[in-house]
Amino acid sequence: MELIRYEHGRAPFLRGGELDFVNRALRRAELDHPELTSTFELYFHALEESLGLRLPRRDFAEGEVLAAYWAGA
């Protein structure tokens, strides 16, 4: 999954498509956390909440995450 462009209040993925759950999670994050103004911060928060993840925030901030692979690939 790659986040190329995301605008606050707009769904980045096709509605009704395979990634629509991310659209819904983003909207929930926008409504629940108006203090989050960075679109990347909202996006990662939505991923964490919808998928039950804890992402390596420091590694992202420091540029240490080079690639990610789908499990089982």
Mean pLDDT: 80
Oligomeric state as shown: single chain
Low-confidence residue ranges: none
Task: Report the end-to-end length measured between terminal Cα atoms.
Answer: 14 Å
Shape annotation: globular
Question: Treating each run of at least 4 consecutive H or I residues as one helix, how many helices?
Answer: 3
Element pattern in H and E: HHH
Structural class category: mainly alpha
- Helix % is 40-55%
Provide the gyration radius in Å.
13 Å
The total beta strand count reads: 0
The fraction of residues assigned to DSSP E strands is: under 5%
Q: Main β-sheet: number of strands, strand sense, barrel status?
A: none
Description:
It is a single chain. 44% of the residues lie in helices and 0% in strands. Helix 1 (20-32) crosses helix 2 (39-51). It is globular, with a radius of gyration of 13 Å. The protein has three helices and no strands. The longest helix is centred in the middle third of the chain and has 13 residues, at 20-32. It has helices spanning 20-32, 39-51, 57-62. It has 73 residues and is an all-alpha fold.
Can I get a quick summary?
The protein has 73 residues and is mainly alpha-helical. The chain is built from 3 helices and no strands.
Write the layout of secondary structure elements.
Elements: H1 20-32, H2 39-51, H3 57-62
Helix pairs in contact: 1-2
List keywords for this structure.
44% helix; 73 residues; mainly alpha; single chain
